[in-house]
Amino acid sequence: YGPFRRLRSVSRRVKDYFEQVSSEWDSMRKALYGDEVRDAIVSAASIGPGDIVLDVGAGTGFLTEAASKAAGKVIALALSKSMTDEAINKLAGRNVEFKIGSVERIPLGDSSVDAVVGNMFLHHCPDPEKAIREMTRVLRPGGRIVFADMQEHQYEFLRTEKADLWLGFSMDNVNEMLQRAGIAEAKVETLSTCCTTAKEGQQIEIPIFLASGRKQN
C-alpha cells in the first residue's frame, strides 16, 4: 500500500469532507448500506455487558448506538468534531465516551479495551496497516477486532466525491495485515454491498467485506 507519507498530506481533505457533510450524513449513509452491516459487526464482536468497546471512525454514531446496547461502555473515536457533535446529540445519556482523533494514533493505552469495532473507516486512513496495528495495540489479549469496509474496486470518482483515499481493499491483503498485527483466527469474508450513485446517474454496487479475529494472548 505504497506511499503513505504522500497520503498523509491529503488526510486533511478527509476531515474537511466529514465536517461538511456531518448534518446530512445519516441520510447519506442509508443510501450506501443498511442496518445489516451494523448488526453483523456487533454480532461478530460477541459484545458482553461488562465489555469496554472502542468504535473507530464512529462518525455520527451508527455503530456506536448498537454497540452501546450490548456493552458496558463504548468509546467513540471520530476524526471530525462536527460528526462527533451529531453523535453526542443522538446518544446523550448513553454509556458512551466521545473522543476526537485518528485511528492511526488512538488516544488510549495499550490493552485497554475488550473489543474494537469499525465500519467504513479504513479507506479513509492514510496508512491502513498502521490503523490495524493501533486497533490491535489497544486490545486486551484475546480481545476481538471486527470491522467492515469496501472490497477493491475501480471507481475513481469516489476519491473526489467522497474523499476516499483507497479504492477498497483486497480481502487477502486485509487478512495479511491482520495477521502481521498479531491477530489470530483472522477471517475476512464478503458481507453485503455498498451502493452509491455516479455522476451519470447510474447506481454502483461495491461488495463489502467483514474482517474479524482475536488478539493473540
What can you tell me about this protein's structure?
The chain has about 220 residues and is of the alpha/beta class. Helices cover about 35% and strands about 30% of the residues. It is built from nine helices and seven strands, in the order H-H-H-H-E-H-E-H-E-E-H-E-H-H-E-E. Strands 3-2-1-4-5-7-6 form a seven-stranded mixed sheet, sandwiched between helices. A hairpin with a 5-residue loop joins strand 6 (about 185-195) and strand 7. Helix 4 packs across helix 5 (about 60-70) and helix 7 crosses helix 9 (about 170-180). The chain starts with a helix and ends with a strand.
How would you name the oligomeric state of the polypeptide chains in this document?
A: single chain
Strand elements, count = 7
Per the principal axes of the C-alpha atoms, what is the gross shape? globular
Strand/helix succession: HHHHEHEHEEHEHHEE
Q: Please list the strands of the largest sheet in the order they lie side by side.
A: 3-2-1-4-5-7-6
Distance between the termini: 28 Å
How many DSSP helices?
Answer: 9
What composes the largest sheet? 7 strands, mixed
Class based on secondary structure composition and strand pairing = alpha/beta
Assign a percent range to the helix content: 25-40%
Q: What percent of residues are in strands?
A: 25-35%
Mean pLDDT score, rounded?
91
Low-confidence stretches: none
Radius of gyration: 16 Å
Give the gist of this structure:
With 217 residues, the protein is α/β, with parallel strands linked by helices. Helix content is 37%, strand content 29%. The radius of gyration is 16 Å and the shape is globular.
